[in-house]
Write a structure and sequence with these properties.
With 164 residues, the chain is an alpha+beta fold. It contains 5 helices and 4 strands, in the order H-H-E-H-E-H-E-H-E. The protein is globular, with a radius of gyration of 16 Å.
């Protein structure tokens, strides 16, 4: 799976819209993620409305790239699920799946953390008028990349420990 070694954080996008088929494929990849007790605590809000993307960009000092992205995906976490203390971990795995699939489809993506910062979570929830059974977890900006980056090789053998 070369996407693991190719994926980078892309924050600049062309104006080209992301096709519906690719959006569905991103959602399929996200929902293919494993979750604790198969609870699947995630919900996804697909945003293409420019005004809403600009509002979401203002919810975090690190989310400004959403204002010029053709697509934003908001990951929500269900508050009541079988094992709520694992819901954010489960949503993280879904985000990573989505990000890797974006790379495989020739799209750029960046994961913009919202949780666990309550002020940011509440700001996103306010923009979306999120029903109280959910809470914002993450934002992802997605689109055709207007920049090219090479992934850093982060492998450090000193961080691998063997017990024999």
């Amino acid at each position: 799976m070369n996407e693991i070694f190719h994926r980078t954080s892309i924050r600049r996008f062309t104006e080209q819209e992301v096709e519906k088929e690719k959006i569905e494929q991103l959602m399929r990849a996200a929902m293919a993620a494993p979750s604790a007790a198969n609870q699947q605590p995630w919900e996804f809000v697909v945003v293409t409305n420019k005004a809403v993307l600009q509002q979401l960009a203002a919810t975090s000092p690190y989310a400004s790239c959403l204002a010029n992205a053709p697509l934003g995906i908001v990951v929500l976490s269900r508050k009541e699920c079988r094992i709520p203390e694992y819901a954010q971990i489960d949503c993280s795995i879904a985000c990573e799946n989505l990000w890797l699939e974006a790379d495989s489809l020739g799209l750029g993506c960046v994961w913009l953390g919202i949780a666990p910062v309550k002020e940011r979570m509440q700001a996103v929830d306010a923009v979306l008028r999120t029903p109280p059974v959910f809470e914002a977890f993450a934002l992802l900006a997605v689109g055709y990349p207007a920049e090219e980056k090479k992934q850093q090789d982060r492998y450090d053998p000193k961080r691998v420990h063997y017990l024999r």
